[in-house]
Amino acid sequence: MSRRPPRGEYIETDTGNKVARKATLVGTQNIMLGGKTVIQPEVMIRGDLIRSIQSSSSSSSGGTPNNTAVAIGRYCFLSRASCLRPPGRLYKGAFTYMPLRMGDHVFVGPSSVIQAASIGNHVHIGANVVVGEFAIIKDYVRVLDETIVPPNMVIPSFSIVAGQPARVIGEVPEGGHEAFELRELYKTVGNNPQPALS
Amino acid sequence: MAPLNPYTYIQCPCSDSASLGRPSDATSPTSAEADDEDNTFDPRAPRANFSLYPLEYLLYCEDCHQIRCPRCIAEEIATYFCPSCLFEVPSSNLKSEGNRCTRSCFQCPICIGPLSVTSIETPPSDPNLLAPDRAATQHSTYSLICSYCNWSSTEIGIQFDKPNSIHAQLAKIRNGGASRLTAKERKERRKELSHRGGEAAVAAAAAAAAASETSGGQDMDLETQFANLKLFYNSQLADPNAGDNGFSSLGDLGFSSPSSLSRIMNLYTGGKLHDPRAKSKLGAMREAITADEGLLEPDLDESSLISQLHRSDFLDTASSTQVCSQPPNLGEPHLHGAARFNSSLRPAPYLLRTKRSKRCPVCRHIISKPEAKVQTTRFRIRLVAGSYIPSISIRRLNLPGSNGPGAPAILGDLLEPLKPVHFLLTFKNPIFESLKVTLGAPAKTPGRFPSKVTVLCPQFDIDANTDVWDEALKDNDRESSGRSRRRAGTESQFQVEVGKIWERGRNWVSIVVEVVPASLKLEQGQDLLKEDEDVLEIPMFVRIEWEVENGGDDATTGSGRDKDQKEKRELAYWCVLGLGRIKQG
């Protein structure tokens, strides 16, 4: 993770996002970044998969449709070659995508595919994980490497999840909450990264 | 082989340290610093597994000033909730409904994936899966479908009329679609029966019941049988005619009655109030003789099952994990001839999960208490050991001379036997007082392959932790203030010096440990390498001392108390540093 990329590999925005030039972001106007988020090379975010049918509650609130496809909180870390893809399903007889929401301090491991409906805060997703469509991952969840979270699964807070299909294999201990913080990791990437603390 | 990340496990003092050390040690290592050498904690002792924990798993009792591990805390359940729908289940429901979710949360019996209610007409469900006899005519039926393995409840012949309250519907359907009595209905039916048949004609009623059950096409299932048996034995126990000194004596409390006399005698002799009565009772009790009383004749003819096994393949039978994840007493009509086919599995309602608060077992103070609400992740009380005792992180140190220049040592690399390696241990002080740390490690690691261990700086101080804001303000000149406080000058001039700290920062200190890994060469007659015997683990005794403001707290573990309101505290524990695997051969 603390690999030092060559200068200029990342685009750093005013809100502190570090987006790799080699990341593939489709439909950028539909991707919301909360700030201080790292998007590594070869990451793909499918912002083009917007909701084609507006739900009755959101369309009534205003004239402009809410087209957010992917919403990401602060201090998220999308590792190399991971993919965020909004989930889609049949809704009242027609196929539509639904937004993918992601909280703060979410780590997505390399080559993982996320199609969750929502991911809470302080979530660690390992490498080569597949999170199925409309899965809901709550706060402080650790998804171990190679896990396949089946569609529609709900993972409650403080779970450690592994397996194919995923099952809850343990609980995050009380002392393990701080390990989910990604502030330090955020500093270690970018165009002029700081070395990781020992 | 998977690379081994260095780890630090801490031994909770709750385990009997004397028995964990070398045999015939009476003194505990925590108290006897003097004979440390021959009293080493052996991380490879079979029992050590149960007392070693990563720092995150440990809690800390502020009143006992002691580490508490998951084994030595008392847990109290704060909230029950379903892990799928995240609804809280009141504990009163728990008693009546059991420990599973009674809403529509089910797990696939084949793969434990979540099941979702799907209308059968929708294209995603394979039309081949539909039971041909039923689904064609009905308009809107629903089934439970696993989105992971595509299992559908139609495979076991279960369909639902409504998309909601699946749990209640499922309780009425047996595999294959036949209806099934719920506990309530069973009770009602029984009441009905007892009304119909008088006490005089029990046998007749039983016969009628049996007749009605068979006519209704209803075999007695496991739950009915159990309920029948329970009722029967209860009535036997309560039956005044069954024995002459049973509960009947409670009715007539005559002093002359021998039964009440024995009862009073029992009161005074104490304890065995029920035993003699029960014994005398047992002799008078009879066993169930009718189906109404719970008698079930075993059906020993299993030829149909055998032929079914012949027709099916291995994948049609349920694995033991699948059977174990089934809720009890829900599947089969009765135990006789219970086969383990996939068709007998049922959707399993989610087991409830809990939020628990934790107490110190000694002083009963709460050391961890989550908010009761399911959705919140905050804790009211959370005394984790990580905020009281220093964390130890391990890094392989690459000295220019020793390991050869150029190739940087990567953590998880195999260690060359008999070649000295240096590891950097970084102790980080979480408390706001400066710590005095004393380390002790055996010169040779315990076990069959002793590696030589030298802690180059066994005694040092760590400066106090400061506020987060101070750190943030200092962040800009971190390069100048934090990193330059090395003992030696620049990186290339680093020399491993005995008794010197390698590097120190705001609230951390790095020291060097030199290890000469043992050779794993097996001599003649030696057993083969056991699992993980190539892992280089060094036990280390950590003693930390610090001073606190004496806040009227009398409980003290410190050796001496200063006059000027300062109290000396001390904490000592064993920990195990896993450094890496030694190269074999």
Automatic annotation (TrEMBL), chain A:
The keyword Cytoplasm applies. It is found in: Cytoplasm, Cytoskeleton. SUPFAM superfamilies: Trimeric LpxA-like enzymes. GO terms for cellular component: dynactin complex. InterPro entries: DCTN5, Trimer_LpxA-like_sf. Its main location: cytoplasm. The keyword Cytoplasm applies. Keywords: Cytoplasm, Cytoskeleton. PANTHER family: DYNACTIN SUBUNIT 5 (PTHR46126:SF1). Belongs to the dynactin subunits 5/6 family. Dynactin subunit 5 subfamily. This is Dynactin subunit 5. It comes from Apiosordaria backusii. The lineage of its organism: Eukaryota, Fungi, Dikarya, Ascomycota, Pezizomycotina.
Automatic annotation (TrEMBL), chain B:
Pfam families: Dynactin_p62. It comes from the Eukaryota. Transmembrane segments: none annotated. It is found in: Cytoplasm, Cytoskeleton, Microtubule organizing center, Centrosome; Cytoplasm, Cytoskeleton, Stress fiber; Cytoplasm, Myofibril. Residues 182-198 have a biased composition (Basic and acidic residues). PANTHER family: DYNACTIN P62 SUBUNIT, DYNACTIN SUBUNIT 4. Belongs to the dynactin subunit 4 family. This is Dynactin subunit 4. It comes from Apiosordaria backusii.
